[in-house]
Amino acid sequence: MGRRLPVGRGCNARRAERRMMDRFRRLFPDTLAGRFVLLLAVAILAANLIGLGVLSLQKQRFDQQVIDDRWIERIATLIPAMESVDADIRDVIAREASSRSARMRIEDRPLLRETSTDSRSISIARGLAETLGRDDVNAALIDRPPSADTRGPRGEPRAERVLAVTIPLSTRDGQARWLNVITDGGPQRPGLVSVNSRPFLTFLGLSLLCVLGVGAVFASRLTKPLRQLSQAAQAAGRGDRSARVPEAGAREMREAARAFNAMQAEISQFDAERMRMLAAVGHDLRTPMTSLRIRAEMVDDEEQRDAMVRTLDEMTVMADGLVVYAKDGRDAENVQPVDLDDLLGKLCEDRGAQYNGASGIQMMGRRVALGRAIGNLIDNAMRYGAGATVTLSRDPQSAVVIVEDCGPGIPPDRLEDMFHPFTRGDDSRNVETGGVGLGLSIARTIILAHGGRITLENRTEGGLRATVRLQVIR
């Protein structure tokens, strides 16, 4: 069986891997525009590197061909001269024609018997044969002789294999002689050929800057419809049914904007139909309830009459409250900047509540609806908590409105239930002492429509605390 890593070591390895992934994610752009620009930069860099590789290979082939052509011309020039002089002169010519990159020898045996099958050897043998007008020329790549110099003129390493050429000579004395040439064709560099780095890096940097600049502008224009869609969706989440997205940009973005606008139109139509229906229902209910009230007033039994009238009054309040709740506090009010300090100050002044607030906090919303929502919280605190204290502050993301009282509080298991329609803190209350249980429901509906949150909690020193968080614009 395989050896298991200790548990602690395995956990450390996983933590290290997670930290590495977290660092990579922080380096990776988070926005679509940033990722688009990064993609362009990587593509340009890859294209330049690929182009450099192709250019280097082509340059290497071209340089090798130039070197081979030069050796063909040089050897072809020496052969007639060697064949027209005596042996001692031939040796001098061969010795003078040799260099650190090539060795020429007049020998009594050929170094090669045939041409090897590689393309370079075949090309050199064919070139010499055509130039000299003979077909007894052989060329091949062989291992470098041990005695040969392994360093070039500037100390660079030479190739392990060298090019050898063998050509028979027609001498005056009739003896068989061969010109054996060993050359590496110039210094061999592994990998890419030398490229002047400063011009290349300058060109690469300028091209990347140009592409990144153009890409940033293009990416900003490309993602602008997405930003507009996001802003419209946030506005719709706050209850703004008039929010629309311009149908511009790429086809996919136009289709998304068209779908969003159609959805907004359908929701607006649904809201309008619901409000018309509720208005009609409220109007139709008042007529029979008024008729019943008139009949109840005619009942002789005073106790029965009072009970019937009280029930009808309760039904009327419940019907009116249900209409207000179903409207979500929207009515026909437009979204506009709302100064929360000014709004809360007036609400507390009208109700006699204590207020401590920070100035300069604004949000986009419906002033009347927000006043109704927070006013319901203050009214509950004043009615059941023997006074209310309202505080306005701001954290990094939102405005915080806190409404506190000194009442008996609410059982912890019923705090969330208090937001449900027709739920009262005290089931024994009637419409005169405890309402119909819609105040907190209406408040939460309005606050949620503005993209906010509301929570209830009991204070440790006694009483209830309602906390409202709302999105701000500054």
TrEMBL record:
Membrane topology label: Multi-pass membrane protein
Pfam families: HAMP (PF00672), HATPase_c (PF02518), HisKA (PF00512)
Entry keyword annotation includes GTP-binding: no
Recorded superkingdom: Bacteria
Residue span(s) of domain HAMP: 220-272
Residues covered by the Histidine kinase domain: 280-474
Keywords associated with the record: ATP-binding, Cell inner membrane, Cell membrane, Kinase, Membrane, Nucleotide-binding, Phosphoprotein, Transferase, Transmembrane, Transmembrane helix, Two-component regulatory system
Gene Ontology, cellular component aspect: plasma membrane
Annotated CDD domains: HAMP, HATPase, HisKA
Catalytic activity: ATP + protein L-histidine = ADP + protein N-phospho-L-histidine
SMART domains associated with the record: HAMP, HATPase_c, HisKA
EC number from the UniProt entry: 2.7.13.3
Spans through the membrane: 200-219
Record bears the keyword rRNA processing: no
Entry's localization field: Cell inner membrane
InterPro entries xref list: 2C_sensor_his_kinase (IPR050980), HAMP_dom (IPR003660), HATPase_C_sf (IPR036890), HATPase_dom (IPR003594), His_kinase_dom (IPR005467), HisK_dim/P_dom (IPR003661), HisK_dim/P_sf (IPR036097), Sig_transdc_His_kin-like_C (IPR004358)
GO-annotated molecular function: ATP binding; phosphorelay sensor kinase activity
PANTHER family assigned: SENSOR HISTIDINE KINASE ENVZ, SENSOR PROTEIN CREC
Protein name, as recorded: histidine kinase
